[in-house]
Amino acid sequence: MAQEVIKIRGGQTLSGTVNNHGAKNSAVAIIPAAILAEDTVTISGLPEISDVNTLVSLLGDLNINTTLEGSTLNVDPKSIENAPLPNNKVESLRASYYMMGAMLGRFNKCVIGLPGGCPLGPRPIDQHIKGFKALGAEIDESSDTSMKLVADKLVGANIFLDIVSVGATINIMLAAVRAEGQTIIENAAKEPEVVDVAAFLSSLGADIKGAGTSTIKINGVSKLHGSNHQVIPDRIEAGTYMCIAAACGDDIKLNNIIPTHIEPLAVKMKELGVDIQVDDDSVSIKRNTPYKSVDIKTLVYPGFATDLQQPITPLLFLTEGVSFVTETIYPARFRHVEELQKMGANIHSADGTATIKPSQLKGAEVYASDLRAGACLIVAGLLAEGVTTIYNVKHIYRGYTNIVKTLSALGADIWTEEI
Ligand code: EPU
């Protein structure tokens, strides 16, 4: 079967303006959350990515009427039916696990295929399950391909997460907003996407306090109405373009950012020596090499995002010393290392840490093992001498709106080919 590859002839200097899109990791929770409403919901500012299309199609499988035009989705859940959700679509993205919390919240019951997504090593959902059980659900995990969740009724509970998990925090909120009584989630994730989902649910009439702190209190309500909601800007997409600009930009301006959300990356970039100017809702960046070597350790928000350790790695080839990247969220998220080695990079990883030394990259044939590894290979390809061919680009399209077109408009020599 023909597949698309992305090709990049590196070495161009990029300039111009990029308009950042809505946050993927908010969008993929807010779309399932819309089924909790009993009236029409309009979600705007969505990224134009394949994960959004897959989730919209899952809503269709529940007999929900949807119209997706550009970045705006209308969801009319009035004719919703509680159908089992098929394995193939669910498997194609990890965030389909939000259908569990949302359907449980809406129907007290759901049958759903097991979630897939980027291969970042083991990604259990035990904390989600623990939360659903605490709210009164019984879970049947006897099938290899699907899971059944059923509750007579959901009743609020105190849930202490053993691990700070974005997915579990959001999923428990989804199941709890229509439960009877109060739910308290302790050791909750504080990521901006958690706050955005809480804001969306509140716009439907939910009673949620404390989102963005480690204790979230939810008082269940019996019904949720419709609303209009605008998704927050994507701090990871923004961060990726910031890395691209620092690698090969001569004055790139990125619009539609929230300064506090990009601060953990901006601070690290300043440490590297990148010329960066953050304004109210934009950031401007110029390449300013050679950079100083830095150490990066991924942490939960507001620490350095795991999703940006791969895209920032190519910048560390432009330094004068040795840099270290330590991954604490997904210790196996280093599948980009082998691909960078194919490009002549001096990089090695062991025990959750990559060691990175100055290198001149050369074009090569490389494989995007996951979404952010793909973003890393794009930055690397833009820096490399000669042509880089990136395979398995479906992962890149899961998370970046029109990335090839956007880079091309900035002056990159980048194109796609069917092979
Ligand atoms: N974990 C468990 N048990 C659970 C849940 C999580 O052990 O029940 C572990 C995970 O294996 C991981 C850590 O806890 O080691 C944190 O995982 P978390 O649940 O926070 O991650 P997630 O919700 O599955 C989201 C994003 C990821 C992002 C992480 C961390 C979505 C759809 N995905 O994943 O985004 O890396 O939070 O911020 O929101 C990406 O965009 O490329 C991406 C992978």
From TrEMBL:
Residues 9-407 form the Enolpyruvate transferase domain. Keywords: Cell cycle, Cell division, Cell shape, Cell wall biogenesis/degradation, Cytoplasm, Peptidoglycan synthesis, Pyruvate, Transferase. It is found in: Cytoplasm. The keyword Cytoplasm applies. The active site is at C118 (proton donor). The modification 2-(S-cysteinyl)pyruvic acid O-phosphothioketal is found at C118. UDP-N-acetyl-alpha-D-glucosamine binds at R94, R123, P124, I125, D126, Q127, D307, I329. This is UDP-N-acetylglucosamine 1-carboxyvinyltransferase. One of its GO terms (molecular function) is UDP-N-acetylglucosamine 1-carboxyvinyltransferase activity. GO terms for biological process: cell division; cell wall organization; peptidoglycan biosynthetic process; regulation of cell shape; UDP-N-acetylgalactosamine biosynthetic process. The keyword Cell membrane does not apply. Cell wall formation. Adds enolpyruvyl to UDP-N-acetylglucosamine. GO terms for cellular component: cytoplasm. It catalyses: phosphoenolpyruvate + UDP-N-acetyl-alpha-D-glucosamine = UDP-N-acetyl-3-O-(1-carboxyvinyl)-alpha-D-glucosamine + phosphate. It comes from Staphylococcus arlettae. Phosphoenolpyruvate binds at K24, N25. Its EC number is 2.5.1.7. Belongs to the EPSP synthase family. MurA subfamily. Pathway: Cell wall biogenesis; peptidoglycan biosynthesis.
